Structures
1.
Amino acid sequence: LHVNGSAGVPRLLPNMVGPPGSAHAVRPWPTPEHARGAALRLAWERLPGLLGQLPGGMMGAGEFVFASLFGFSEDSFWLDSSSAPDRGRFSYMGGRGGRLWRRITYRLPAAEECAGMPAATHMPPRPGTVEQEDWRGEVTTTRTCFLPFLSELLERNRLCVSEAEVMQLPFNFWGGLVGYLGFELKAECGGRAAHVSPTPDAAFLLSDRVLAIDHLQGDVYVLSMFSGDGAGGDGEAEAHTWLDSTAVQLRGLIGAHGINASGDASNACEAAVPRGGSQHVAASAKDCPQPVKTAAGNGAAVAPKISSAEPFRLRHTRDQYMANIEVYRQALYDGESYEVCSTTTLERRGAPEPSRLYRTLRALNPAPYAAWLRLGGSHAMSVCCSSPERFLRCDRGSVLEARPIKGTAPRRLDDPAEDARLAAELASSEKERAENLMIVDLLRNDLGRVCEVGSVHVPGLMEIESFATVHQMVSTVRGTRRPAAGIVDCLRATFPGGSMTGAPKVRTMEILDEHEGRARGVYSGSLGFISFNDTFDLNIVIRTAVIDHSAPMGTNASHDDGSWIRIGAGGAIVVQSDTGAEYEEMRLKARALLHAVGICDGSGSAAVVDDTVKHY
């Protein structure tokens, strides 16, 4: 057992490929199967030490770069480790790109197509609808299941990996897909299509132009993929033209004095949390200073107070949520499950301006798998994510790694002794250790379906990691991917993440389908990248706000009554669970998000939740 110090820096795990005493040889990367016939090529440039020359320095310049180049605009992404550099070295960002760029969304079949399917029947998944918009704005739709579509897409878009690139690019995302798999995609992974999500069940941007930031060395990399077969124009020349112009833009930021984080005059306050100082949390709106002017000289004001903001309501009232816990406990006693991950949704009509919310959230709750994703088109939405949890990564050499979190305790930053006591209490809790161990066993089984025999192991078990607002119990499970197992095979074997279902997975998902009563959507799914060089890294979507733009937002709006904001939260139920304590744990996990919303509303405190009435 390992308990971190107050700084919350995790123990560095040895990069073992197999269990101690039975190490497996590292597989070559890229694999011969991937390299054979790979048609995409990569152009790139490294700007050494640039980050340290920009406003914010090594820790804060990532936000400045993203705001300056991409402006939190539609179809932009930011896989953001910069606010937690002790746990994440690289961040990635981009927007609408070149000739390969497209936006891909997927919806499972409509409810009426799945009606009448018995609860215990697991039929082959029915095809849904893939919608794609390309770089010219042309939209096409295809009737298919998503995972076969994804498999074909990855097969057609393989990036040639040179020896020089292997040696000189120390990160894994060189271009490919950035987006999410929604929880309801479990229908293609052994679960049922029980509920219809208000947002797409999967959404990705095919990003052929990427900025990668090394927060350790301060380097910025500019990367552009292009087709090596000469089809569709001179892709290589266009790639180098973009590289050159982007490098000029980046160098032109040296000496600037501030940012307008939304790319226009709708800048928000930023909670005053030192970058990399995850043990500090802004206490109220007074900790959000007036934003400084941008390089262009545009000023921006702190968000006005929104007295008309409606309270959040729970999808299940407090009484309903606690009644569900009792149902799950009975299922445990009946032998139907060992552990059930109960969740609900806090939702409200009228969302803060998304970029303001994300900037505030990342300051309040720094996280290693944080992300911003904004989609345009017919499914306009924004995802503001501060996840501390990795779902699954495939690194160079085909090493798969999952880092499930099970076990949560609050922080007491004002009282170091009490904070340490809470961490130690979490580490020794029989209930929390049982939760964690059962999910570790589930993930060992999931990885065993796609890993070489004998390679699955647990180099880190029940370690305590400390974040800005909570202590967490985290384990690490690794294995070596079999040569015949593709990326989609790995996803199908492991999705959804076991920490968001419970165990055994399939039967427990059926119990959740019956009693949660509605789709989870983006929450409980996974968000991250799938690189065309045969690597990927996906988080578990927790500590996340999803804004559904059902009506257009004004450019300078601080609040939009036509949109919906949804925050998922929950916790694992085992036989030792106390119903009231489980409800309070669910609320604890939503606390940082509600605080961020309240700051953006202008109230200076957490947004109000009415847990006594049904959802809107």
Note: Residues 1-13, 260-304, 551-558 have pLDDT under 50 and may be disordered.
2.
Amino acid sequence: TLVLRLNLRITETMVKHQKEKLYQSAREHRSLSHIRHGRSEHGVSGTVRKLPFDCCALTLTQYESPVCTPDGVIFESKAILPYILKYKTNPVSGELMTTRDIITLHMDKDENTGSWQCPVLHKPFSNHSKVVAIRQSNGNEANVFSYEAVEELNFKPRNFVDLISGEKFSKTKDVIYIFDPSNDVLNQKREEACLRSQQLKELQHLGDNTVDGNSDIRHSVTSQSIMDTLAKKQSVNNSKKRGDTRPETSMLERGKKLKLFHSLEPFSAEQSSYGSLTSTSMSAFGPVHESEVSDKATRQAQFDAMKRYMKKGYVNIHTNKGTLLLELHCDIIPRTTSNFLGLAQEGKYDGSMFHRSIRNFMVQCGKPANGKGEGRSFWGEPFEDEFDNRLKHNQRGVLSMANSGGVNTNGSQFFITYKSCTHLDQKHSIFGQVIEGFEVLQAMEEVPVDKNDQPTEELKIVKIEILYNPIQDAVEAQQLRKHKSEEERKRLRETQRASALGQEKITEASHHKNDGAFIAQPESCAFRVGKYLQRAEISKPNLESEKISFGSDTNTASELGAVAVTRLPLPPKKTVFRNFSEW
């Protein structure tokens, strides 16, 4: 017994030290290879790609009228019904299937956000939610709930009654799990449905030797473009097999079609008289044609100019309760401020009613004065959101854009906050701030409203007065900056060209005498050493006695009149070798 206890103690000590070791044995390394390679222990891939909840397993796009199979795989009804009528198989298992096997899902959608939600908890479904469907008595319809609601209200109290219709259901037969992030089997089925549909299409293409780009199944934008490309290639191959050969278009015609060449006309006699193609007197640049610029690019250039100009805009909003002085962040949010200033300048806000006022929250305005429609932007279409970390809904009097509940859906409506509401940050574009007239804002907040938050008294904008609009000044400053830059580049090109051709000479008219010194100046003062250093002045204090020798002739500087500037280096000085006696 003592020996057995001693052996057990030794074994426990060895196991303890074996767990604390800082290395792996060869057996442990082999046993963990499936983890390093992303596989399960049986060799199957352990990473299952999970499709989003609102994604059809057949088209990989968001569904609008969802249906499912008895296995719980969700499809878009407009995609799965043509698929079943064409192939008569289940996209998941490959077995025979008819339209009677399709189950229509009744899912609740949030009117404000447009996302699917649980009808009981009003909690939106996400990619991490567990969702179930309760099949009804007819067998072809099902109500969708979150698993939390069904578990708390049906499973735990053993009350197997549908929470909407009131029909009884069976926990084992009528409960369908349509989405579960932790269920790899269900996720694998959803993935196999898309793969099987692609395989059937490939088999059909191989059998028909054609590519059907106009299928009844709705594809995503990327897959549809790929199908169109394959269809074009297939049609070209079929035309070549039939012997339908067409003359190929020349490179010139293709260039015209693609607009690669601005001018394809030959040189005129006047242009060709300037010199050959290798002549330095001929311009190296051809005629430049101004390309067509889209309105979007023009607006973007204007917005960039406003940011560089770094000036604020100021407006007065005259209401029937008083005047509000607003500062607009034109240097930070140029697009939104341009929309507001453009609409105000056209008088679109004059007579507009404040149609929504919520105490301790905000007051909203911007609908047309006639009350028709929600209001369009200055450009006639919704424009993009603009966010900046320096601007937040953290105080009273913040001017911000109202949207339609989605991204990039801004129009003409805006609102002014009564207090801090930071939950609106990164959702609504802030483009201004009230700097004077807070007592008017307080009077607007005290106006009574009805159950729809609409003021019962008249509350409207009489007129918007623009005190300062920096848009025009920013554009003019940008044009002036561009003009100066072009002039500088033109002057630099002329300088470089004149320096390369050696056209700078000193004329007799450019001689000046300044305190007995002779200063030689060129015709163009652009000749410089480097970019900023002026050329060294040639100073000859004694014109009569100083002699300049050229070859065998010896003349004075006054007799020569002008000395040509040479770019050659000076000749080396004569060297005389002597002894060290003078040291």
Note: The mean pLDDT is 75.
3.
Amino acid sequence: MIGQAWADEASCMLQFISCVLSHPIIVIVQIQGALIASLLAAGWAFSGVMRLRELRRVRRRITSEAASSACQPVPLPNPNRRAAPAALTLAGLSAKRGQILSAPRCGPLPAEHGSALACSSSSGGRTSSSDQQGAKAAVTEAIPPPSVFSAELGSDGRDVWPAMTVILPVKGARPHSHEAWRSHLALNYEGPLEFLFVVDDPSDMACVPLQRLMATAKGVDARLLTAPHATHSSQKICNILTALEAASPASRYVLCLDDDVVLHPGALPPLVAALLADPSLLMATGYPIDVPAEGAGMLTYCIMAYHLPLLIGVSVGERIRFVWGGCMLFPAEVLREDTIGIVRAWSNGGYSDDLIVAAKCGEAGKHIYCPSSAIFRQTLVANPTWTTYWNYLRRQLYVMDTWAGTHNRRLNHGMLLLHCWLSWALVGPALAVAARAGAWAAQVPLLATQEVYAGPGTAWDWLGRLMGTNQGGMCGHVGASLPGTQSVSHHAAFLHRSSSAWASDRLAMEPGAAQCGSAAAVASALAFVAACLLAGAMLRWMTGVVMELLLALHPQAPHPPTLSAFSWPQVAAGFFATNALVPICALYTVVQPAITWSGTRYWKRGGRIVRVQRQPP
């Protein structure tokens, strides 16, 4: 009888779990989770479609250019201009459906960066007047006004790109830093271009490799600056402002880049051309695609998972309200004259450079340009520690509790609350489904005991009621179906003696009082699982399209990313693990005013940085 009593108690426990998981609240939570997962699937599918269109345009452009022109070495037209790895002209850009394509890379990048390659035509490498007019007409048809482009033409008819300063705050050197720095110095841009790498310590471990790289990059105007230690802002903002003061006065555009992202050679011309063509655009931006390093562990995928939903926000169109701090292109007067208060907000306790810019753009009613081609590879470290991951997650949420005004505060706090709700709205039904699956798995060993103790033919009927396919009053049925002396009261007494009062209460219910195997609960759980599988499939497809786009934009990349670099079971596990921690981390971050970022400790009060302390190495 001990085996029978154990089987009765175990089946009662599983029935109780099924009753709880069939509660109407759980059903609603699972339906809500299915809807959110479906929205993620739709968003990733739309993002993939936008990148696929860009991929097809890039391939068509490459095919047409291969058929109409040949690539050959030509001398630089102006010795005072930077020796670009490939000559690009406004006439070489095309626009379609409002999107300006990036210029092609016409040949391999010489190791010494000392010569230039240009797409030459029958006119000997110079763009004909008719070609210029046709290209300008295509661009201005997509983005007016035409007077902007005509103002950029030199007296000899050759396109003159505006001077630009690229600012790269640097802190330390990572395994893939050298590849990223080389991609920056190898950018295709026909106009004057200077690079300002900024560190906060002359002894930074990035200084020596950067100096060696700049020494070998002949014809590239690159300098290494040292910024003072920040006192009332983040060190990154302090580095940007230091470089802005040292930038060439002739620069008409300023590009702020993260030093750990790999850019494709034609990344700059589409962004500059769009800002030249449309004065309503305040700035241009891009977005990273995180790629795990070889042999990446679980925590790497947890870090990667944080950015996955944000890819949807930068794919809704070319005019967006989001800004990624890793790529921000401004007209120089926006920062020098501080027309909308960005520099003032940065200097006055600013912590997050990109969220402040996004808020100021929203206040000014300005749009931000983000083409589908402006997506850049960012390689994640293989095996971060738990401390590194927790600090990363805290820093992502810390920015949402900093602000530079009332509008910025409402925006950031609203995003933080929405982020927390969406995170647990996905994790909650996932836990419910996992518990239900575990209960179903535990029922398999009990099938035989039902046949022995409840009579032949009762096992599958019992399992059907438990899983929701048979709508009987199951909790009461089990006790009533047992033969002879094994009545409901007997089992209730036994369970009471074994300190299982909760099971006794459930068994004492009248038949039909509890429909533990709710078909609605099972159906909503299956719908959530199906929606998650669909979202995973769309994410994988979108990632594959992005990998192909990156390869098409940079065929000579030394380490081209591939879809095989991703472990999709770890992607799924990292996604749910990170979202499970987001509300907990957000609550801790709100009540904890301090955060550590790259060896510097920051304290916030009233949404601004009020204290900065450098930690010993």
Note: DSSP finds 22 helices and 18 strands in the chain.
